[in-house]
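Schema walkthrough. Field components (list of strings):
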Amino acid sequence: MPELPEVETIRRQLEPDLVGRKLEAVEVLDAYFSKPSTAAAFERAAAGREVLDVGRRGKYLMLELDDGNSVVIHLRMTGSLVLREPDGSANPGDPRVSPNSSPQAVDTSQAGPSADPAVDSGERHLRARFLLDDGGELRFSDPRRFGRGFVAGPDELDAYFGSRLGIEPLSPEFTVEAMAAMTAGRTGPLKSFLLNQKGVAGVGNIYADEALFRAGLHPLSPGGSMRDEHHRALRDGVVESLERGLDLGGASIDDYRDARGESGAMQNEFLVHRREGEGCPRCGETIVRIVVGGRSTYFCPGCQKRLRKRPRRRAR
DNA sequence: CGCGCAACCTGTCTGC
DNA sequence: TGCAGACAGGTTGCGC
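Field assembly_structure (string):
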């Protein structure tokens, strides 16, 4: 699923092609996408504007516009943002489409619900499209319709992110001290802490498992049970797993594709995630799967021992 | 406020 | 072969 490394991979790919481009037309095909705002309001706010920059905060992607507003997009679990080049080619996974087929060629007026399944990949789940002034097109697709987009001004954006996102884990602010402060006194499991975006922004189910393994920490250990060495280990584990994911262009378990429609390679190098029953890469013990906070969680019982309650200083 | 959990969605996999 | 049910997980909202 798209977590920080996947969203950042997309951001890096979009930036050179989107900055300086004008959004000639914006079309919301699924009203769910722009909820709670209407499709028309979203289109009106974005259309005609030039893209000055492409940013990211946690798992959110932002197209910063020339009027000070930003188009904010969250892919949630199955969303994808694919850029079609001006020459119409792009999409490497679609040899059926002839190079000069009109973009308006799809006639939906007659098509029943079970229309030609061969035309599906990308078309059926297309939720919004941004036509660029160089002939290119940015397409947001999402089979499960969880992904969302909205347009907001700077103050609105600060308030929005401020109330739901914590520290950027690849920034200098993500220190050992910050980790200690965030987890102090917490009784919930470390896995849940990592998934909560108000602490560390951008970590999801995959990188949480990988980070805890790198840190040698049990996913069920309470946040407040960590001591100094653990704070450092977890901070480093988060950073290392995210950077590894970035180096490999993200993880493609099933739906994730980058802005060129291609898969990442991180899924081939998972240390524990989705590796139930296999041997631990460090000690060889069998990796197990448990459920924490309703999420599948994978870890090595040999390397990731549960922390005892924080040792109380003995009286006298 | 912290914590746990259901709900939001739909495609895919599993078991009978 | 077909179909019901489980499962996937980022975020929100509700109850305790």
